[in-house]
Amino acid sequence: ISSCASYYYSTNLNNISIGWSKQQFLQYFPASSSQGLTTQPPVLRAAQQQRDGQLVEVFTISLYEQDSSVVEYWFVFEGGHLVQWGRPEDWRAVSARYEISFNPGPSVQ
After folding, report:
1. Distances in Å between the alpha carbon of 88 and those of 7, 23, 51, 61, 103?
2. Which phi and psi angles does 76 have, rounded to 5°?
3. 62-69: long-range contacts (C-beta < 8 A, 24 or more apart)?
4. Contacts of 42 (CB under 8 A, 6+ apart)
5. Which is it for strands 70-78 and 55-64: parallel, antiparallel or unpaired?
6. Each residue's pLDDT tens digit, 19-35
7. SS3 breakdown of the chain: % helix, strand, coil, rounded to 5?
8. Which pTM value belongs to this model?
9. Beta carbons of 10 and 63 less than 8 angstroms apart
10. Which residue from 16, 61, 72, 89 lies 20 to 30 Å from 41 (Cα-Cα)?
11. How far does CA 98 lie from the centroid of its chain?
12. What is the pLDDT of residues 36-94, one digit of tens each?
């Protein structure tokens, strides 16, 4: 028996709020399997302590769009709480504010 990858929908973002804890976020997008499909959870792509002592973490998750394309969204956590998320084209402007080594994939630049 083999399983296929499945993704959450970008409409799930409508329920996310700035300030969510990392735990809330990861519980909202759990890895799960049913009927041969494995839902892809967020992936921790980078973590680095800032000069002010705050830990900054970047997660990505691929989401289905309404046009059936798949887009890899990124999520920034400071001190364990969500401070921003966005589409790939938004990453450059945000990354300038953080001291973090994050080498995004081709879809997140």
Report:
1. 17, 23, 26, 11, 12
2. -105, 130
3. 62/7, 63/7, 63/8, 63/9, 63/10, 63/12, 63/13, 64/7, 64/8, 64/9, 64/10, 65/10, 66/10, 66/11
4. 25, 26, 29, 59, 60, 61, 75
5. antiparallel
6. 999 999 999 998 877 66
7. 20, 40, 40
8. 0.81
9. yes
10. 89
11. 16
12. 667 888 999 888 888 888 899 999 999 989 898 999 999 999 999 999 999 878 877 77
What would the two tokens of residue 100 be?
Answer: 């973090």
Contacts of 34 (CB under 8 A, 6+ apart): none
Give the list of residues 6+ apart from residue 24 with CB closer than 8 angstroms, or none: none
Q: How many residues does the chain have?
A: 109
- Find where tokens 């041969």 sit: 36
Q: Which amino acid is at 104?
A: P
Residue 66 sits at φ, ψ, to 5 deg, of: -65, -25
d(CA 12, CA 16): 7
